[in-house]
């Protein structure tokens, strides 16, 4: 009856009357917010465009004030469904409703639902002008929300979109001075590293995490950078977050497939003095120096890993167990010229066939210079005697690293 009375009002009286009635319907005092508000929204859609837009903006702003959160979510979805046939006329209002629906889902830790609510915003509309920073912020936010639910596949779609937007904006000198842009670029880099990590592209993730760990510390007192840029132009990060990024870089480097590229990343991390303060320093040192990894060190490291880093493959192995087997094969190549597959399996703590398969994969991918004699059941490592200088340099590097470790222990 109230809706009929509102419809019958003169045009000049409708805006105030509708606004007051909408506020009453969505007030905290109402037990049933959905029924009267949904009826009002239905009536509003038949009103002139200017009035309908104004009321939908008010509706969007009131969504987060509704005490009954489930009813607020249902109302937001109802409004979006009602607006959909005329979405071209109400793009701004739909975006506002989706942003607040996202907030409601976030508060209830419904991360994927929050991401989907935000992903429904049309960022490439030809009807309304959408700020490039807003586009970037939305893409990064969606990616972060999906990552909260460990949905790296969905997150990657929006990270790629953000990457394209960043590349486009890098050609605009003015855009790069925008502090919001700098903060969003940092968030994008975090998202990208987490996506690579979640998709088990550990070597790339390690490099991205390490890059993040080298950002200026928030506690730095310098006002100018060496290259002449103002310190405010470079994002500053908490020391704790920098160490967290460094810890993630070490974890990903250890989990990465054994090979020359991984060795270079490990060397870079080991030379960074900050890694000596990490709980994972023990395993980093052993992996970098090519020492065998014992069960106790591996178990301690496993306790620090994320669930996706401990996920089991179809054969029952984990990324960590595969990485440890491959590393220990490389460690064996530094001690043995040849070794029986049965003895290698015992050394690695796995079945001989598992050791043979791991070595075979590494040989095929050119990450291990060796060959397998299946008839004799032997793995023969090929040592390049022609490159004696490189081998000698590597030996000196290992001795120096061991000496430094001993000196540091004595100093303590």
Task: Describe this protein's structure.
The chain has 412 residues and is an all-alpha fold. Helix content is 62%, strand content 3%. It has helices at residues 2-7, 14-25, 34-44, 49-62, 69-83, 91-107, 111-119, 132-148, 152-169, 179-198, 202-213, 239-255, 260-271, 281-288, 295-302, 319-333, 341-348, 352-364, 388-411; strands spanning 338-340, 370-373, 378-381. The protein has a three-stranded antiparallel sheet with strand order 1-3-2. A hairpin with a 4-residue loop joins strand 2 (370-373) and strand 3 (378-381). Helix 6 runs antiparallel to helix 7 (111-119). The longest helix is centred in the C-terminal third of the chain and has 24 residues, at 388-411. The radius of gyration is 29 Å and the shape is elongated. Mean pLDDT is 84; it is low at 220-232.
Ordered list of secondary-structure elements with their pairings:
Blueprint: H1 2-7, H2 14-25, H3 34-44, H4 49-62, H5 69-83, H6 91-107, H7 111-119, H8 132-148, H9 152-169, H10 179-198, H11 202-213, H12 239-255, H13 260-271, H14 281-288, H15 295-302, H16 319-333, E1 338-340, H17 341-348, H18 352-364, E2 370-373, E3 378-381, H19 388-411
Antiparallel strand pairs: 1-3, 2-3
Helix pairs in contact: 2-3, 2-4, 3-5, 4-6, 5-6, 6-7, 7-8, 8-9, 8-10, 9-10, 10-11, 11-12, 11-13, 12-13, 13-14, 16-18, 17-18
Strand and helix order: HHHHHHHHHHHHHHHHEHHEEH
Detail the poorly predicted runs: 220-232
Strand content: under 5%
- Main β sheet profile: 3 strands, antiparallel
Structural class by SSE content = mainly alpha
Feature tags:
single chain, 412 residues, mainly alpha, three-stranded antiparallel sheet, 3 strands
